[in-house]
Amino acid sequence: MKTKLLSCLLASALLSSPLQAADMDKVRQAIADPKGMAAPGCVAGAFRNGTTLFVTSSGAADIAAGKPLDGDTLFYAASVSKQFTALAVAILATRNKIDLDADVRKYLPDLPAYEVPVTVRMLLNMTSGIRDSLEVLRLAGVTDWSGTKKDTAVKLLYRQKETNFRPGTDYRYSNGAYLLLAELVERVSGMPFADFAKLSILKPLGMERSHFLNDHRPSVANVAHGYVLKDDIYEIRDTYPSFSGSGGLMLSVNDLARFDHDIAVGHKVWTPAVRKILLEPGKFADGKPVMIGDSGLAYAAGLMVGQRRGQYYVGHGGGAEAFRHMYARLPERGLGVAVFCNRADKDPQQQSDAVMNAVEANILAAPEAAGPTSAKPDGRYASEELMATYDIVTAGDQLTANVSSPFVTEATKFEFTRKGDKWEGAYGSALAFDSDGQGFTISSERAKAIRFRRMD
pTM (2 decimals)? Predict the structure, then answer.
């Protein structure tokens, strides 16, 4: 018994140990820009079992003013906000104020009566078919969402006589669904959504500077401008909506650390009952899980959950015209990572993966390709469908396919790079070898699974 206890304490100590200098260098490299304060940038944070491991930043919150990004900088959180909207709904559900399986028209009677009732849970799980509110605004001629009021967006949704599909039968990401959820919280709580979120989520967790917008632009200090690169010049694009639900949260990474602490150990707001609602994968009417493409993740409630590269993964990204964010957790490792960027030219998924890999010794690294049973897949392969042969030559993580066919008069070759268990090439092409080593399939964005068999 003592040995087991000692092992548990040692494991806990190791998991809480600070990063080595080399690992922190990897984190900084993931978010760095050689232009420094002449460019926008990113703030990255990592949290272990509710304790902040580090918060580091690169670049400017305001280039003209020379204001650097830091852990207290407020970002427009975009769709990272959705988990907070879902949390507000879950809190009211645990208080028996909202029935998740009720027709949403019980709370929002102005919504049309669709062919199949849309439930609150369908809104949470993105299976409602409710049209995207930002796209509806765009099609109505709104070119700058920053000047649009919430009532305008809600009224347009109320005028939509049809859904994208029969509710409960498909998945389609919808900002409209989460705008309606915020409206529902307002109706049930009797106060503006921003006020309810402050009283029930932000204030109890000590998230002092973070707040939801309520038809007003942020007026506090240390707010990041968003930037897009145009003709080698970074231009400000603070074009995000000033209403909340699908987005609207102004959030700092230091405040997000307080939120992460509550998820991991505090449970003041993230109670067990709330957790069950937020992390339960959505289901279609036929009982199948709401899977997101071939990602291995299901849509739950403002969160994507499931197995990713061998790890139980929970997360959600966010993007506006000039902002890119990711907040993700590996609950079984007690690890949370946030990367928030005020620039449009960053990939937050890639960056957050890099931070997780720095903290956890490449825990999310793509698995090595199994390849064929032979030592190397080199050789000649033929496709009846293409009337072509590919002579495959590999060198490390690079693969070259030399193409011969009746249609080829000059030497033609395709180049691929190993990515996990596939080889990826130009134009979205991917080549995957059979497990028996006797062939492969090649796919592109518009031509799937064309088969080749080994000739030699």
Answer: 0.79
